[in-house]
Specification:
The termini are far apart. The protein has about 240 residues and is of the alpha+beta class. The radius of gyration is 24 Å and the shape is globular. The strands form three sheets. Strands 3, 4, 6, 11, 12, 13 and 14 form a seven-stranded mixed β-sheet that branches.
């Protein structure tokens, strides 16, 4: 009889505990996680890419496959970048980002923000840089001019120029030119917020630009939501003398 009482008391305790737990979760609300599809890679250059025709970044925006409902609004895709003059520094930070970038998580995005990656700017002022459309589209990005090519953010699917890419407003360029199409009048320095420069670059110097793309949106409370990151690649830029 004593044993049966103990069992009954345990059952009552567990029932009360379960009821309190349910009340707690319903009262406080369970965190909601949104499934946000990241962009899909199409062409990823590296600093070793020498073929000028392939020195561009491109990706597919799979907006028709992304979740959007009354609780979540999809806005489009943003591009983040950072400038280095040390390959070791760049690769170390890429490894750190990769270690935290996981599917359907914003951890990778949080890491690039911690590392002070900056949002690409456009001459058009659009934000995000690739707004949502009703169907998937392929986007091509060139950061600097080469023979036969100009800096551009281009909608390949619809054969339309989106805008001209610029660096974040990070310093006085003298001529007001903050695009990635550098001239001998301006180049990245260690005091620019979008750089990790060990030693200021002189005329004729070399640096590297590393990029990521992320799908962005907002939930019903207007809090920003981010997909996992898409690594877009990196390129080497030679300072014009």
């Amino acid at each position: 009889m004593k044993s049966r009482q103990g069992t009954l008391q345990k059952q009552i305790f567990l029932s009360v505990f379960a009821g309190v737990a349910c009340l707690f979760f319903f009262a406080c609300g369970i965190p909601v996680y949104y499934v946000i599809e990241p962009p899909v890679a199409e062409n990823i250059p590296t600093v070793d890419t020498d073929d000028i025709s392939k020195k561009y970044f491109s990706f597919i925006c799979p907006y028709n496959n992304s979740s959007e409902n009354s609780e979540f609004t999809l806005y489009g895709t943003d591009i983040y970048y950072k400038i280095y003059n040390s390959l070791d520094d760049m690769n170390t930070e890429i490894s750190r980002i990769n270690s935290r970038n996981s599917e359907y998580s914003s951890s990778g995005f949080e890491t690039i923000r911690e590392l002070n990656y900056q949002t690409l700017w456009l001459a058009s002022g659009a934000s995000p840089v690739v707004p949502k459309t009703t169907a998937s589209r392929t986007v091509r990005l060139r950061l600097c001019s080469d023979v036969g090519y100009d800096p551009e953010l281009y909608d390949v699917t619809n054969d339309t120029l989106i805008s001209i890419p610029y660096r974040k407003g990070t310093g006085n360029t003298g001529s007001g030119n903050m695009s990635f199409d550098f001239t001998s009048n301006y180049y990245p320095v260690s005091t620019d917020s979008d750089t990790k420069i060990i030693e200021d670059i002189q005329n004729g110097g070399v640096w590297y630009v590393n990029l990521y793309a992320v799908t962005v949106g907002r939930d019903a409370s207007l809090a920003s939501q981010y997909s996992s990151l898409l690594f877009l690649g990196n390129i080497k830029i030679q300072q014009t003398q």
